[in-house]
Amino acid sequence: MAGGDGDDGAELFPELLSFAGRAQALISELLSVSEGALFFYCSSYGLGGIVYLDNPDDFEARINGSRELQSLEDELRESCSAFFQRFFLLASGITNYHEELLKYLEDLQVGRS
């Protein structure tokens, strides 16, 4: 609610502004992490997907039979740890955000009663 004196609402609802800023940061990180997803590399070689779980030996034989795929596997091993660390930090951030937002909304509802 904007006041007549040029107030844009930020002073009235700083918590909401903070939640909006955090949501924007989480969405930005989600987009950034999704751009580097491992399946992007694997799908270009026909190795991606859950089909791997049906017959992992075939996929391993395919990788071991190709220097290019072995090089790709080495590259993925090097970059996986950083990717998964970012992914789990993002998941933790989303969980914390959700819990704090629910608590804020609950407090807001109780305050109105």
From TrEMBL:
Family of the protein in this entry: Belongs to the strumpellin family.
Lineage: Eukaryota, Viridiplantae, Streptophyta, Embryophyta, Tracheophyta
GO process terms (BP): actin filament polymerization; endosome fission; endosome organization; regulation of actin nucleation
A Pfam family it matches: Strumpellin
GO (cellular component) term, any one: endosome
Name of protein: Uncharacterized protein
Family annotation (InterPro entries): WASH_strumpellin
Domain of life: Eukaryota
